Structures are given as structure tokens and as C-alpha cells.
Q: What sequence folds into this?
């Protein structure tokens, strides 16, 4: 065939509708280009695999297709007992799943052998079902145990699989996982369609059927998600990257080669799981996306057993390998929309959590955001709305060994402390204490000392030590039944606006409680509650440019209290009390007013002076 004739044929193929022996061909431009370049088109049936466009680079054994050479393979049809195997060490392999329905009880429907690089291109809607017997994994017959793949798509060690295309993929994980990557493997999700993972297992405390037996998507190496929609029901974790803590054959070697990381740049996530929603052993980085995560029926059914056995956290940076290797897991969030309804912590790291963007609506049976070492919210000179955090139900709202707040809006409702820098609750009954949480306080992200060496907001430098709260900016509202701001070290308010309502009158918790120094310099602060141990304001708390006043007048719940600049000045704070109180405290910088605050009741909240903090952001 001449080169000119070949060019004409290729051009016609790009513009004319293409049908290959009955297989779908109404596809996008990328799909058409893939068809032009494909090595073969193959169709599964229960009786075998037909070559609807013959080619080379593969072998067929009954209903098992083995890819042996780099190339593009369009695969469709339906088969109850079939498999696709990509041979070890191959690169530049593309599997176009064109409305493929494939099940297997002997192996994974798709197996990518070690050190291979594969694109899985989705066209139409394909369904992969793993019907292996879960008991095979622990069979005393070594041949049976070694043959167990435990996933609808199994990606062996050192391999990389990229999902692309505009189609949808249904995965039925009746054996173990939906998609599973081995050590040092990589899973990349660039597809624009939906990946739906379910199974025949029960979840939500064994009350609801339809979940993957173990994890939805798991990988020892790294997971990168750029777009797409993910609907996952799992009896364990939704999306997980966690290397083995020990080598199963040796029992001693820690997998230090696998990354144990997850990076999410976009996508839509609807996760219903018994374990963690999204967990990374070493680092979980979220830069965008929409997340609706529920763990174990949500916040209202928390108990110690659940935390110990299932973890039940929403977003988590933690793992056995990291703990054994002495690593500091990091959870970093720069953007996204999050609806988290979790049995245990909604956002959790065994070391550092940094949240500089995103909109959060949280209900949790334990902590809203928890970091064993440091919890950092917002950024220096950040916008009031970055991040925007609403915690409607929690045990403790914001908790870390050291807590830094630089910007953003934080609305916190807690049954114990609102913001806590400590290793547990004031009562010693912190739910997290039963869940294997071990604090390592005092450090900051990137080696920042916990003792005030970083002070962008001005004011005095804090004393070096563990368990400190630093607030440099932002808009914080706390309504809690324990201490409002509770630090087992120092409490430093260097900027921003804080409204804190602690335990109602008659209790022994207070709006602010610190075992170390309390320093208020540059912040606008209003507090109300029970006087408690630290309820009586001390002049030593306030800087020279800070005005303050306190009162032991009792007010009933629902009463509106205004803080004025002087006895006859303008209203600086105006809040409706969510509970009965017998102590109020107000303080603001002299830049706000050089007059001492005074208190007066009112019949309506003064506009833009406080209140419920419910509002919408504009696009500016």
C-alpha cells in the first residue's frame, strides 16, 4: 500500500463514524485517535475472545487475554469468567475498556504485572467484578493463597496505571479491594467519568449491604487524583495509601521504598465507609475537589471500640509504617469543599495538619481537626474566608499539640473544649485517648519551634514549651461545654477576632484556661461563660496597647450583650448569648478605641458586630 493511499484511509477514519464488528465507535476525538493507532480490537464472551480487529502483541487462552507487547488494545464484550493480564515490564500499553463487562472467581479481572506502565482508557460504561473467595488469601494451600489477587484491578509492585477517558467504571469488590496497587506502584486518575466501587459486604456496622469487602482504592505507593467522580462504599477505608509496616515473609522489614502518599487536585467524592474516608500513611495533600464523607453512620454513634478497630476518621495522615519508621505524617489542605460526618476525628494527623483553604462543614464524634504535633489554620495575611470551617458537632473542635491560627473563619461547637492544645481533655475522658492517639507536642510544621519563634502578628515572643495556642488573625467563634480556649501551655492572642462561649454558669470551666502564660496583644476578644479557674481576668494578660474589662454579672441564655467603647461609645461587639453565663470579658486594641470597654444589654444584635457568623462570601 502506498504512503499516499494510507494517508487517505487514516483521514477517512478520523472523520467517518467507525464501527468495528459491532463494538461501540461513537467516541470522542481522543478515542478515535486511539482506534486509529490501536494494535487490535477484542471482544469477550463466555465462550472465548474474538478478534474483531486482528493484530499482534497479545495471546489468548480461552477467556484469558495476555498483553505481551506495547500497544493500544480496544476491549469490549461480556464474560463471566475472564481476565486481562498485562505482562511484566511492559510500557506504553493502553487498554481501551469499551463497555466491557468482565468477572472472575479465579483472579482479578485486570492484572498489571510488575514494573509495567499502563493507561486504562474508559469508553462508555464498563463493569469489573472480583468474585474470588476471600478465604483463599489465608489458605493453607500456598498455591491457592499466592494466586489470590483480592482486587478487581490489581497493580503489581513498581507499576504505574493511569485512568483516562470520559467513560464510567463500575467495580464490584466481592473479594477484598476495588483497585489495589502494590509496593512502589502509582495510581493516577485523569478520567472525567465516574468510578463507582461497591461489593457484597455489609458496612455501617454490618447494617447495610453493598460495600467493597475491604478498601475501595488502595495503593502502597502513591495515588494522584486530578478529576473525575468517585462513589465508594467500603467495609474498611474509602481511598488509602499505606505501605506494609512489616514484610510478611520476614516479619521485620519495614517498606521504606513506597511513598504512602495521596494527592488530590480535583474531583467529586461520595464516600460511605466503616473505616477512614481517605488515609495516607506519609502525606495527604488536597488542593481541590468536592468531598462528602461519612464514616460508620456518622458522628452520633462514636465509641471506643469503633475508634480502636475501624479508626472512622474522615481525612487522615497516619499509618503503621509511618509510626514504626518514625516518620511525621502531614495532612495539607489548600482548597476544596468538605462535608464530613465521621465517627472519629474529621481531620486527623499523627503529626502535622495545615489547612490554608477550603470550606468545611463538620460533624464528628471526636475532634473536628486534630494534630498530634501541630495544627495550623490559615496563612499569614490570608483572607478571612480562607479557610472557612464550620464544626457543628464535636467533642473537641480544634486540637493539637500546638495550635496556630493565622486567618480564616472558624465556627466551633464542642461538647468539651473549643480549641485545645494538649494531649487529652481536661476531664481525661477525651474519646481520642482510647483510639491510639499519642501526642508529640511543641513542634511546628517545617521544623518551626512550638515556643513562639514564629510571630508574624506582632506582640511579645512566647516562652519556649509544649502545648501552646497562637492566634494571629481570622474570625473564631466557639460555643462549647468545656473550656473555650484551653492550653496546657501558653495562650497567645496576637490578632484576629475571637468570640468564646464556654460552660454555662455554675460550672468550673472557663472561656480561657492556660497552664502557662496568657498574652492578649492585638486581638479583639469577647468571652462569656462560667468564671471557673481562670475566669477572673488578670491585668498581666493584656499588653500595653490593649483595653479590657470584665464583669461577673449573670445573664440568661438568649440575652444580647453589647460591648461598647467606653460607657457611651459605639458598639464594638454584639452577641446573643447561647447559654446562661455569670462572667463576661471583652478586650480590643487601642487602635479600635482608647476607651475601656463597657457592657450593656440590647434587644437586637448590632449589624456586623458578631452574632451567628452565618454569611455567604462574595467572589472578591
A:
Amino acid at each position: 500500500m502506498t504512503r499516499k493511499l494510507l494517508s487517505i484511509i487514516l483521514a477517512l477514519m478520523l472523520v467517518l463514524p467507525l464501527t468495528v464488528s459491532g463494538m461501540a465507535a461513537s467516541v470522542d476525538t481522543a478515542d478515535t485517535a486511539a482506534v486509529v493507532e490501536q494494535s487490535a480490537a477484542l471482544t469477550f464472551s463466555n465462550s472465548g475472545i474474538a478478534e474483531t480487529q486482528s493484530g499482534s502483541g497479545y495471546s489468548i487462552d480461552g477467556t484469558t487475554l495476555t498483553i505481551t507487547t506495547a500497544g493500544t488494545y480496544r476491549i469490549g464484550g461480556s464474560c463471566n469468567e475472564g481476565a486481562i493480564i498485562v505482562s511484566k515490564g511492559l510500557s506504553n500499553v493502553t487498554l481501551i475498556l469499551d463497555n466491557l463487562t468482565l468477572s472472575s472467581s479465579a483472579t482479578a479481572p485486570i492484572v498489571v504485572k510488575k514494573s509495567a506502565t499502563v493507561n486504562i482508557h474508559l469508553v462508555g460504561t464498563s463493569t469489573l467484578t472480583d468474585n474470588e473467595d476471600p478465604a483463599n488469601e489465608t489458605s493453607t494451600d500456598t498455591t491457592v493463597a499466592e494466586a489470590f489477587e483480592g482486587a478487581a484491578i490489581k497493580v503489581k509492585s513498581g507499576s504505574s496505571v493511569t485512568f483516562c477517558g470520559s467513560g464510567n467504571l463500575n467495580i464490584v469488590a466481592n473479594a477484598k479491594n476495588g483497585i489495589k496497587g502494590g509496593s512502589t506502584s502509582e495510581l493516577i486518575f485523569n478520567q472525567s467519568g465516574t468510578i463507582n466501587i461497591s461489593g457484597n459486604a455489609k458496612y455501617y456496622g454490618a447494617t447495610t449491604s453493598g460495600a467493597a469487602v475491604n478498601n475501595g482504592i488502595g495503593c502502597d505507593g502513591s495515588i494522584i487524583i486530578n478529576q473525575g467522580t468517585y462513589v465508594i462504599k467500603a467495609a474498611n477505608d474509602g481511598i488509602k495509601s499505606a505501605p506494609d509496616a512489616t514484610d510478611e515473609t520476614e516479619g521485620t522489614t519495614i517498606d521504606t521504598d513506597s511513598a504512602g502518599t495521596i494527592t488530590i487536585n480535583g474531583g467529586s467524592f461520595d464516600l460511605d465507609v466503616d473505616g477512614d474516608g481517605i488515609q495516607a500513611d506519609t502525606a495527604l495533600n488536597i488542593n481541590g475537589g468536592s468531598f462528602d464523607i461519612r464514616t460508620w453512620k456518622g458522628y452520633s454513634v462514636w465509641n471506643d471500640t469503633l475508634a480502636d478497630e475501624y479508626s472512622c476518621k474522615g481525612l487522615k495522615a497516619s499509618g503503621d509504617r509511618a509510626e514504626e519508621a518514625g516518620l511525621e505524617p502531614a495532612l495539607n489542605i489548600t482548597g476544596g469543599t468538605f462535608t464530613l460526618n465521621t465517627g472519629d476525628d474529621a481531620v486527623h494527623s499523627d503529626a502535622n495538619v495545615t489547612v490554608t483553604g477550603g470550606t468545611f462543614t463538620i460533624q464528628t464524634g471526636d475532634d473536628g481537626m486534630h494534630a498530634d504535633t501541630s495544627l495550623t489554620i490559615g496563612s499569614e495575611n490570608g483572607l478571612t474566608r480562607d479557610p472557612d470551617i464550620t464544626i457543628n458537632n464535636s467533642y473537641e473542635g480544634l486540637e493539637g499539640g500546638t495550635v496556630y491560627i493565622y486567618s480564616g473563619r472558624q465556627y466551633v461547637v464542642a461538647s468539651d473544649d473549643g480549641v485545645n492544645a494538649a494531649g487529652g481533655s481536661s476531664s481525661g475522658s477525651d474519646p481520642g485517648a482510647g483510639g491510639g492517639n499519642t501526642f508529640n507536642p511543641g513542634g511546628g510544621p517545617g521544623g518551626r519551634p512550638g515556643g513562639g519563634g514564629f510571630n508574624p502578628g506582632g506582640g511579645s515572643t512566647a516562652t519556649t514549651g509544649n502545648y501552646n495556642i497562637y492566634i494571629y488573625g481570622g474570625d473564631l467563634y466557639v460555643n462549647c461545654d468545656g473550656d473555650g480556649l484551653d492550653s496546657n501551655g501558653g495562650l497567645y492572642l496576637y490578632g484576629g477576632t475571637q468570640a468564646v462561649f464556654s460552660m454555662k454558669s455554675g460550672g468550673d470551666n472557663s472561656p480561657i484556661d492556660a497552664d502557662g502564660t496568657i498574652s492578649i496583644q492585638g486581638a479583639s476578644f469577647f468571652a462569656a461563660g462560667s468564671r471557673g479557674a481562670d475566669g477572673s481576668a488578670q491585668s498581666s494578660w493584656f499588653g500595653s496597647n490593649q483595653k479590657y474589662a470584665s464583669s461577673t454579672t449573670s445573664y440568661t441564655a438568649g440575652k444580647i450583650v453589647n460591648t461598647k467603647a467606653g460607657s457611651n461609645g459605639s458598639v464594638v461587639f454584639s452577641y446573643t448569648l447561647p447559654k446562661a453565663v455569670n462572667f463576661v470579658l471583652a478586650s480590643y486594641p487601642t487602635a479600635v478605641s482608647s476607651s475601656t470597654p463597657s457592657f450593656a444589654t440590647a434587644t437586637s444584635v448590632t449589624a456586623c458586630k458578631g452574632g451567628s457568623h452565618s454569611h455567604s462570601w462574595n467572589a472578591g
Summary: Helices lie at 3-15, 29-37, 142-147, 304-310, 320-325. The chain is about 5% helix and 40% strand. The two ends are 62 Å apart (CA to CA).
